[in-house]
Design goal:
The chain has a single domain, classed as Rossmann fold (3-Layer(aba) Sandwich), CATH 3.40.50.620. Helix content is 45%, strand content 17%. The chain contains seven helices and five strands, in the order H-E-H-E-H-E-H-E-H-E-H-H. The chain is elongated and about 75 Å long. The protein binds adenosine-5'-diphosphate. The site of adenosine-5'-diphosphate has 16 residues, from helix 2 and strand 4.
């Protein structure tokens, strides 16, 4: 016996499933520490999806200034009430993690030309590995175009003012970390 669905029912079923479909974007990075550039990408990325998963990459080969827990704490303090931002950590292959959390898109920020080469290689490799996950780039806002976690750490260690480049929660932790490292003779 065949079941026939009239076109009005079909439209209704499709509408409901489209309404229920959550668009999940994955924003991966080291966030060592979170800068105003990252914050801007997260805020703008939220307009493109229902849920934004900000994932701290745990890379055992890198020596970060902040532990994963410290980086997570800064993110929590900066986005305490944003229900649509989920904070996680992961290690291993990005596309595997994107599939695991059923992300539709990987979100990345693009600054100067220097980002382009690396980001385009990674986006193309990820497309080959997982064609169903699109990489979406947001151009850095003019005010954050030259801001990077690496530069912020360097300037902070040399005693420069980085208050315009990081959120206050990150500034407080950076200041404490610099004191702690210099106390140890770093
Ligand atoms: P990674 O270690 O993967 O470079 P980062 O935490 O430095 O991780 O950056 C994560 C993402 O945020 C990358 O896509 C990077 O290009 C982007 N990003 C970093 N700083 C800025 C900024 N100032 N403006 C816009 N995007 C940025």
């Amino acid at each position: 016996m065949t079941h026939r669905i009239d076109s009005a029912t079909l439209r209704e079923l499709t509408r409901v499933s489209a309404d229920e479909m959550q668009r999940i974007a994955l924003y991966p990075g080291s966030f060592d520490p979170l800068t105003n550039g990252h914050v801007n990408i997260i805020e703008r990325g939220l307009s493109l999806c229902d849920e934004l998963v900000v994932a701290i990459v745990h890379n055992p080969n890198k020596a970060p200034m902040f532990s994963v827990e410290e980086r997570m704490q800064i993110l929590r303090e900066v986005f305490p009430d944003e229900q649509r931002v989920r904070l996680t950590t992961f290690s291993g292959l990005l596309v595997n993690y994107a599939r695991e959390i059923q992300a539709n898109a990987i979100l990345r920020g693009l600054r100067a030309v220097a980002d382009f080469e690396y980001e385009s290689q990674m986006a193309n490799m990820n497309r080959r590995l997982a064609p169903e996950v699109e990489t979406v780039f947001l151009m850095a806002e003019p005010g954050s175009f030259f801001v990077s976690s690496r530069l912020v750490k360097e300037v902070a260690l040399l005693g420069g003012d980085i208050s315009g480049s990081v959120p206050p929660q990150a500034l407080a932790r950076l200041t404490a970390k610099v004191k702690q490292l210099q106390g140890k003779g770093a």
